[in-house]
Amino acid sequence: MIKHIVMWKLKDHAEGADRAANAARMKSMLDACANVTPGILAFEAVVAQPGLEATYDVILYSEFTDKAALDAYQNHPGHQALKPFFGAVREARQCMDYEI
Questions:
Q1: Given 2, 36, 48, 99, which is the most exposed site by the fewest CB atoms within 10 A?
Q2: Which candidate, 58, 72, 53, places its Cα nearest to that of 22?
Q3: Is the pLDDT of residue 31 over 90?
Q4: Residues 6 or more apart from 48 whose CB is under 8 A from it?
Q5: pLDDT average, residue stretch 38-56
Q6: Domain that holds residue 95
Q7: Is the pLDDT of residue 19 over 90?
Q8: What is the pLDDT of residue 98?
Q9: 87 to each of 13, 49, 50, 67, how far by Cα in Å?
Q10: Total structural domains within the chain
Q11: Could you tell me what percent of the chain has a pLDDT over 90?
């Protein structure tokens, strides 16, 4: 199994919206990808909660059966469609994939 964790820190304002609105839009877009390919075991997009310490604004925690399933997800048109918006609104991105 492969775990795939991605964190995004967002710009204060981008694409005509503030950080909170863009975070909510990112979550919605990610949620739409939860079942785009076989081999997705877990898929959870989360927006940082007000009042709780957070250094990033949006996190994706996902699990895949194997690297082939992760690759299929990453190359899926639904996932590829996220990249322009995510790139425009993000200040920073961190990612870690690891096998268990």
A1: 99
A2: 58
A3: yes
A4: 23, 54, 56, 57, 58, 59
A5: 95
A6: 2-99
A7: yes
A8: 98
A9: 13, 22, 23, 24
A10: 1
A11: 95
Tokens 């079942």, residue located: 35
* CATH number, domain containing residue 81: 3.30.70.100
Beta strand 17-18 with 13-14 is antiparallel
Residue 62's CB is within 10 A of a number of other CB atoms, namely 22
Q: Are 4 and 100 in contact (CB under 8 A)?
A: no
Residue 21 CA to residue 41 CA, distance in Å, equals 28
HSE, CB side, 13 Å, CA atoms: give it for residue 88.
14
Q: What are phi and psi of 46, to 5 degrees?
A: -135, 140
Taking the model in full, what pTM does it have?
0.94
Q: Which amino acid is at 85?
A: F
Reported as a single tens digit per residue, the pLDDT across 50-82 is 888 989 999 999 999 999 999 999 999 999 999
Residues in the chain: 100
